[in-house]
Amino acid sequence: MAGSAGALRLGLLILPEARWSVARERWQRADALGFDHAWTYDHLAWRSFRDADWFGAVPTLAAAAQVTSRIRLGTLVASPNFRHPVPFAKELMTLDDLCRGRLCAGLGAGSDTFDATMLGQEPWSRRERSERFEEFVTLLDRLLREPRVSHSGRYYSAHEARNIPGCVQAPRVPFAIAATGPRGMKLAARFAETWVWVEGRGNPVERVAELDRVCAANGRAPDSLRRLALLGFDTAVQSVEDFRRAAARYRELGFTDLVLHWPRESEPFRAREPLLDEIAAERETRVR
């Protein structure tokens, strides 16, 4: 099972809810504390934050790239609900340059909630979302690898789209693909460096076993695909002891990466901010 050995990489999900005068310190602190990666949601609106402060993912990551030096940055996750692969590829290429090769593109099929309707369209069926996502990922891969791309598909087109000079990372920024079913997992096996599982979306034991089967059926060595679990929807990590239990459980399941939400004063993701320092210290002690 992939990731059963070695250190568990830790990340933070920083909601794009605070003005930059506050958010800047969060991204810098994540970097200074030694977390491996930091992410933000790429939504036009999200859950109870629909009528609350909420900023854009791409400019947030552009700003974070300028105030951090080592931590990897990314979207968790971007979807076709309001993204088109041609302009999004240009933005990813630019972000990878701004952070000097520390970007990861987290991608997902999206849902039928706010993002699906804010541009005025009717929500797509589950089948259409899956079909769109497959074409979206396939075209985005080409756009980030090739300097000139033309494509005429069912949902997306590109006419001699240029992405010059290309990504800092070769052959392109790595993909982290969120998927719970065989079709999405097949995309992860084909295109991704990391598979993303969001807590609450199925049994993780079953999902990991299914991922292994999909990888094997599609010629991908299962242990070559990292597995990332985004926590906070069922597991409340509010103490170092909670973190230890979660880390032990997910390491045993074969996950290589855990992502916690930045602690907030109220729900969702309510916890003490000093917990981040305690987790960083706990991790440093274990490494030593």
Give a structural overview.
This protein has 288 residues and is of the alpha/beta class. The chain has helices at 20-32, 57-67, 85-98, 114-117, 126-145, 182-191, 204-217, 240-252, 274-287; strands at 9-13, 37-40, 72-78, 103-107, 148-152, 157-162, 175-178, 194-198, 226-230, 257-261. The longest helix is centred in the middle third of the chain and has 20 residues, at 126-145. The protein is globular and about 50 Å long. The two termini are 26 Å apart.
Question: Which residues sit in consecutive blocks of at least 5 with pLDDT less than 50?
Answer: 1-5
Fraction of residues in helices? 25-40%
**Overall 3D shape:** globular
Number of helices: 9
End-to-end CA span? 26 Å
Superfamily at the CATH H level?
Luciferase-like domain
User: What is the level-2 CATH architecture name?
Assistant: Alpha-Beta Barrel
H/E order of the elements? EHEHEHEHHEEEHEHEHEH
Tell me the layout of helices and strands.
Layout: E1 9-13, H1 20-32, E2 37-40, H2 57-67, E3 72-78, H3 85-98, E4 103-107, H4 114-117, H5 126-145, E5 148-152, E6 157-162, E7 175-178, H6 182-191, E8 194-198, H7 204-217, E9 226-230, H8 240-252, E10 257-261, H9 274-287
Parallel strand pairs: 1-2, 1-10, 2-3, 3-4, 4-7, 7-8, 8-9, 9-10
Antiparallel strand pairs: 5-6
Helix pairs in contact: 1-2, 2-3, 3-5, 5-6, 6-7
Descriptors:
TIM Barrel; disordered N terminus; 9 helices; 288 residues; 39% helix; eight-stranded parallel barrel; alpha/beta; two-stranded antiparallel sheet; single chain
